[in-house]
Amino acid sequence: MSTTTLQVPEVKNYIGGKFTNGTKKSMDIVSPLDGATIANVPLSTMAELNSAVEAAQAAFKTWSSTPIKERVQIFYRYKTLMEKNLKELAALVQKENGKTLDEAIAEVEKSIELTEYACSMPQLVAGKIMEVSRGVECRLDHKPVGVVASIAPFNFPHMVPHWTIPNALVLGNCMILKPSEKVPVSSMRIAEMLKEAGLPDGVFNVVNGDREIVEAICDHPGIQAVSFVGSTKIAKVVYIRSTSNLKRCLALGGAKNHLIVMPDAHPDMTASNVTASMSGCAGQRCMAASAMVGVGNIDHIISKICDEAKKVIPGKNLGAVISKESKERIERYITEAEKAGAKILVDGRNTTVAGMENGYYVGPTVIDFVTPDMAIAKEEVFGPVIAIMRASSIDEALSIENGSAYGNAASVFTQSGSIARQVMEKASAGMIGINIGVPVPREPFSFGGWNDSKFGVGDITGDSSIEFWTNLKKTSIKWNPEAKTNWMS
Ligand code: NAD
Fold first, then answer.
1. Mind listing the pLDDT tens digit for each residue in 135-160?
2. Cα–Cα dist 287/438, whole Å
């Protein structure tokens, strides 16, 4: 599909099964590909949130008591609809986010996989029953929490909402999604397609907005659980505010992922993995390689990384970054590193794409001889940039990785099982890669980091998410009056 013929849906709130235009305040949505305005997003207020919570509360009564095997049928249909409309959904993601079409297709395919996993939920929450003493049995049921909220970032407009929507809804909750105000378009199609699949009105709602609506979600007494994905600064605010209002909260934050490269690493495989990890989605992935620690002499691998990076061409196999401010921030980090003594081997500053001169592009950037005290070594850059540090031993490399405030992912490239095992044991991160640059666990394994990359208990996807989206109900049952009564009866 050509993106020029793409129909961008009007962005509205979606409350109780209806698209509504409730609020006067709005903001332009600009495509990072070419800087053109493509839509307008309403900035909702408490009034719209109240309506969405009321709609969700009303729907919860019937939805939560619908058997899970019936609830799941809607998601089988929804999955088929996503498959049928894959190209259109991907083109919308590309338009609003700026990533390449291939990356956008992979993103929607991941939403399909997440939905497929949710369809197996009836088997996963079949519960437990056991005769615990003569004539007495205990049974365990997973019950939905109630009205829940999901607050999303800009970098995966389709996939990150699917980290929460299918699991939370199949498990019987009703949801209010607050998409990123920078990329609200995909959520319109999510709402339309859920309705087309047969989801009852009010089970899924979208309230657009910015800070005001996020704070209102944290405070709203009608919302029982809040999931958040975004930067660490805001994750902390949302976690503290939601939990102080006695809600359960899982807040995923930013990242600074380290790749450790040993001299025995396979040079070609390592170079292509490092480059793909740092430049995929223009480096705007919380799983992107952002720092690399080379142990001993790895000059031959760095030279191959530079060769690979030069094959990554903005506007072709490298998308745009989200905004002018992002482009400026990324370029500032590069310039400051250079001023502090680092060596720029491949320089992506001042990049433009012919015919898309108003787009926001940063070319792939490889920086060597970065030291752990530099800002580019410590802070999240969120652009197609790899900062290479040097270490003389695996212990030194691990201590650099352990020194990071974040803890989403860490990887090692080596042919030594013993070194791989050390990294697996000692890296301070939730997701570890052995010769893999983007170690995203696939379902049923769960997604979630450690340290400043996640606040709250458990992970956001996979089996771990079941505890977040449900309450456990334990029932003790006796029907037989002859069963002996003891002190526990
Ligand atoms: P962000 O924190 O700026 O925004 C995320 C959400 O918070 C948005 O919906 C936004 O409207 C809201 N928000 C923004 N400022 C707010 C404020 N002051 N008060 C209340 N709410 C506010 O994040 P972003 O720039 O959209 O996304 C990029 C960030 O998300 C990166 O740090 C990236 O690492 C992180 N991220 C993390 C993961 C993960 O799994 N850990 C996944 C994807 C993205």
1. 899 999 999 999 999 999 999 999 99
2. 6
